[in-house]
Write a structure and sequence with these properties.
three-stranded antiparallel sheet; alpha/beta; seven-stranded mixed sheet; binds pyridoxal-5'-phosphate
């Protein structure tokens, strides 16, 4: 990694490989066949990462991940639908805000920040609110780093014939997901998370037979997934200006992903990053917020030290000066900060980050424990 700019220990944007950044050093015509072949090969590869080739289609969407979440909810949920949202963090809460804006009925299942959603509780919600038609489930709640049990939730949705829309933003590519026979109807992610591309493009992978029923349903023109899909099938092009450089860089990032061994290899590298980080931080006295059983390998939330010299802004600045960018906490009840384990980084980078954190603690006179 070049010493000239800091390593991002943030879960998107994140540190990309030099080859991925180099793919952005030329311009592309959005109507040009060469660019359109890149888009279609990217979509084909995204489908194959989650084994969706047979029954699903991949629709790319301009914008950050939230644009694609909003596009999926607006396109796939009918106006008279009702969405169950198990809520254990900020990204679940964002789904609720989107539904509210669109005037779609919803039921939330309030959970603690460290409490995974449970299939039996979701099943009980189906019984007490029979009007529920859809479930919007965040797979990996990035606000704490918590992994929800997607397979069990998908099975319960299939059993009760509820449509399941999954925000797999920070799990796609790292956590195994197999759409075949899964009960998942739609899966959403973006370029700048575990695929290690730059930010700027999201995508939804949707069951084809479901998407076919969704013409003219979206209240938004720009975020209409059905319209984007139909236009792209007809012309090979995006409806409106595509983020050309981001698509080209994502192509390169997916090539690297495949060359490195695909999802299993990515999961293994991130697990090594997480283990190295937690071990090093434990030695300094920092404690993870989540119990190990629900801690993902993508991002770790640490309790802030209870010390009068602790100020996140000073800590951040000291660690940044040593070449690493940390992430503030996103929990409402406890004071925390976060360290991302994803991006083109390895265990050596995590060890150097822990050393930078140790030096910052020393320099600022913080008593960690
Ligand atoms: C990153 C992320 C999103 C999208 O956030 P953007 O800021 O729009 O990229 C949505 N859900 C989860 C779980 C995420 O980690």
């Amino acid at each position: 990694m070049s010493a000239s700019f800091p390593i991002l220990l943030t879960p998107g944007p994140l540190t990309t490989a030099p080859a991925t950044r180099e793919a952005m050093l030329r311009d592309w015509g959005s109507w040009d066949g060469e660019f359109n072949r890149i888009t279609s090969s990217v979509c084909a590869d995204l489908l194959s990462i989650v084994h969706g080739e047979d029954e699903y289609v991949c629709i790319p969407m301009q914008g950050s991940g939230t644009f694609s979440v909003e596009a999926a909810l607006g396109t796939l949920v009918p106006r008279n639908g009702c969405v169950l949202v198990p809520n254990n963090g900020a990204y679940c809460a964002r789904i609720v805000r989107i539904l509210e804006r669109m005037g779609i009925a919803y039921v939330t299942l309030p959970l603690e920040d460290d409490e995974p959603a449970r299939a039996d509780v979701i099943e009980a919600a189906f019984a007490s609110a029979p009007g529920i038609t859809h479930v919007a489930q965040v797979h990996l709640e990035t606000s704490a780093g918590l992994l929800n049990p997607l397979d069990e939730i998908a099975a319960v949705c299939a059993r009760h014939d509820k449509r399941l829309i999954v925000d797999a933003m920070s799990s796609f590519g790292a956590v195994p997901i197999d759409l075949r026979g899964s009960g998942i109807d739609a899966l959403i992610s973006a370029s700048g998370k575990c695929l290690e591309g730059p930010p700027g493009m999201g995508f939804a992978i949707v069951r084809r037979t479901l998407l076919e029923q969704c013409a003219q349903r979206s209240p938004s023109l720009a975020l209409d997934l059905h319209d984007q899909w139909v236009y792209m099938r007809k012309t090979g092009q995006w409806r409106f200006t595509p983020p050309t450089h981001v698509v080209a860089a994502l192509r390169r990032a997916i090539d690297a992903f495949a060359a490195q061994g695909g999802q299993p290899a990515r999961a293994a590298r991130y697990a090594g990053n997480r283990a190295t980080l937690i071990e090093g931080m434990n030695a300094l006295g920092f404690l993870p917020f989540l119990p190990a059983a629900v801690q993902s390998d993508v991002i770790v939330t640490f309790h802030a030290p209870r010390d009068e010299n602790w100020r996140f802004a000073d800590f951040y600045a000291a660690v940044r000066a040593a070449g690493f960018i940390l992430y503030p906490g996103k929990l409402t009840r406890v004071d925390t900060f976060r360290v991302g384990c994803i991006g083109a980084i390895d265990a050596g980078d995590m060890r150097r980050a822990v050393s930078a954190i140790a030096a910052a603690v020393e320099q600022l006179g913080i008593r960690v424990r």
